[in-house]
Each structure stands twice: as structure tokens, then as C-alpha cells.
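Progress against Task 2.4 (sequence-to-structure conversion) is shown through the following example record, which the project officer requested during the mid-term review.
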Amino acid sequence: MDWLDRMNRAMDYLEANLTNEMDYNEAAKTALCSTYHFQRMFSFITGVPLSEYIRRRRLTLAAFELQNTNSRVIDVALLYGYESPEAFSRAFHKLHGVTPMAARNKGAALKAFPRMSFHISIKGDSEMNYRMEEKDAFTVFGLELQTNVIDGQCYKDIPAFWAACERDGRCAALAQAAQKRPDELLDAGVTYDHNPNGGMKYMIGCIKHGDAYTDSYTVLHIPKQTWAVFSVVWQAEDVTNLHKTWERIYAEWFPTADYEHADCDFDMELYYGDRDSQYGVEIWIPVVRK
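C-alpha cells generated for the chain above:
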């Protein structure tokens, strides 16, 4: 319950400052966690980046202001953090589908995004199998994709990226560069370069050993780190359980654990086995003690 109270106090802070300059550090301090952890937790649990949630709330309140007062558009724009009426109009139209002036018309169809709050939900889910592991620095190289977490877009883009790379031979070429046997799995899926607006990069990767050829690939140097490692019950051609495990880590494990996400911008899936037999998946999250 302490975690719920802290998160809801952070939401109180966000709501109270929608017409002020927003300080993510202050919101995180209210939740008693690092800014990086707060943003990651918020994004995974709600499916919306923190910056996008704030944008939607501000534009929701701006629509109410335009409908219910005689305030000028420029004044409403400045009130909700836009430096010009043009920037405000573009953002307003993108969200609501109408211009700020048209929003004053009776019968104008607008969108309202309500304030979020956090509540406990008791479910019948199975236990989560995990272990803590110290791992020395290592290097991963591979194929890069730009995607984002907004409304779960990454869950669509990443499987499609894997399928495309398998079809056109990029996965096979990567395996050869890593000096793998044809029947071996690639080693990893890595997410990195997360930004406050929800963007991130994803890599289909191999861990570098020996003189593996990396020149034509993106290369990531992952530092020595403590990791929380979660075993996933993997079903071939079905990523539902994998996605569910990612969501449970943030919605169920972190709120009750003595750890928070480390300020290390790499989350990983590691794959074990080969293509012709049963294989396993583990999710690796960099963590530090609270």
C-alpha cells in the first residue's frame, strides 16, 4: 500500500502542476524513487509515456477552458505550456481532431483523458520465478529497430521486425557473423535509448565472443551490473506470455521488491537452446537496491 500511496501522491503533484513548468525529478522524489525508475514504471504500467500523459491531460483541460470560458486561444496556449498559438493549435488538432476555435462550437466532438490513479488489483496469476545475478561487462551486436512504447506499438513492431529479418536473411547473416551453428538461436533482444517521449531502440543481437565480425552492425557495450532475471514460460510462435511477463515485472514485482530500475539503459531478453528443440527465454532487468 505504501507504493500505491507514493505513486498517487506523485500523480497529485503532476495534476497540481499542469499549468506550471513540470519537474519530473520532483514527481519522482514524491514517489521516493529515481526519476529514471519513475518514468519507466509509469510507462510500463499505464502504456503511455509520462510526457504523453501530461500532454493529453493539458490538452483535455485546455478544451474544457475553451468551451466554458471566453479566454483567448493565445492565453489558453500559454497557460498550458505552449509558446505560440500555432504550436498549440497543431497539438490540439492532433489530439482532438478540431482546431481550438472550432472547439468552442456547440456539438464539437472532443476527447477527454481523465486523471489517472493507481489502485491495487488482486489477481489469480501464477508466481514469478526470478533470481538476482551479477554480470561483468559484455558486448552485444546486431540489427537495430526504432520504435516506441505508446499504446503498445513496440509489441507490434518488434515481432514484425523479427519476421522481416528472418525472411530476408538478416538473421542468418548475423548468426554467421557471430560464428553460430545454423541451428543455434540468436542470443538476445535488447531495448535501449529510451526517451521521455516513449521512443526507444530495439536490437536483435548476439553476444560478442572472440573475433566475431561486428563491423556492419550496431554495437552495444553493456556495463557490469546487477540484474533481476525472470524466467518465462515460452510457447513457440506465441509471444503473449512473454509480453505478460514484462508487464508483470513492472506492475507486480517492482512495487513489492526492494529494488528499482538502475540508471542503465538496457533491458534484455536472452534466448537459450536451438531451433529444433525446446528453448527458453529470460528477461534481464538492471536493478539497484532502493
